[in-house]
Amino acid sequence: MISSLQRKVIISFLSLIVLLIIYLIPVDNNYEEKSNYIDVKKNSVYLLNNDLLVQTEVIANKDNLEDKILEIIDTLTINGSKKNYISEYFTPVIPENTKVLNLDLKDKLLKINFSQEFSSANISTIEALVYSLTELEEVENIMLFIEGVKIDKIEDKIIPNVLNRDFGINKVYDITTLNNVYKATMYYYVNIDDNFNIVPVTLFTNDNVNKVEIIVEKLKSAPIYQSNLMSFLADNAKLLDYEIEENKIRLEFENAILDNFFESELLEEVKYAISETLKSTIGVSEITFVIDNEEI
Questions:
Q1: Measured between alpha carbons, how far is residue 164 from residues 15, 126, 157, 264, 281 in Å?
Q2: What is the Cα Rg of the chain in Å?
Q3: N or C: which end of the chain has fewer CB within 10 A?
Q4: pTM, full prediction
Q5: From the first residue on, what is the mean pLDDT of each consecutive set of 10 residues in the chain (296 residues)?
């Protein structure tokens, strides 16, 4: 029999072995940090919020391009299979039970053949579909069909044969005459459940919005009938100078371009709103911001 002393020695020895093993096992001190940065794939789509099409992100499960396109269309469809992934603040726009019969993508032109249910689509449906799918860099232009027949009218309104972002979104008409009407898509933000979501607004106006100074002025205030939209650009912000060279533009502002009651962290939101507006309106692809002779 094992004596009490021997038992104590054996227990002590085994405890030492266990401690030694635990000590020697490598520990990943960065595990918690890594777990907080899991790359969650999302699709950027445009859904309705209070009669405005607003950009939001919905968890994506597909990698293949065609599957990704179908997933975006499914997200935009009322009571689609992605409905549980959509925030309660947003509403899909494609008629319920709409099916995609087939797709064809070539040279950035996407042709979509829908089932008959799509015939009850409206202008917002088309705008959301075009802006959501052209978030993909592989898609630039879209043609729509219903059971093989090209769609040329929506709500008795003629639509272009080929659709792209020139079609506009959240259209606002601020005109006094039908002569010299200009169009620009301005980028604003709306506060939804303490999150600032992007809202592009295509503005029709008699002002020549191809001029940079007018774009900046238009961004200082919300478009007509949409007082809840904002760009965070201060009312007293002043564009001192700008220079356009090929597809680049350099903007020089005076010191403060943020309103006093906004945090300085919103500077990136201001830059984004101005940049996207200029990209869509005058066609530049690179924007440089300068304040007090310092690039920001």
A1: 71, 10, 17, 35, 14
A2: 27
A3: N
A4: 0.81
A5: 53 56 54 53 94 95 94 97 95 98 97 97 97 97 98 92 95 87 90 92 84 85 75 82 90 70 67 90 89 79
Q: How far apart are CA 149 and CA 145, in angstroms?
A: 5
Specify the residue for token string 């088309």: 126
Which residues are CB-neighbours of 170 under 8 A, at least 6 positions away? 52, 53, 127, 199, 200, 201, 202, 226
CA–CA separation, 39 vs 22, rounded Å?
31
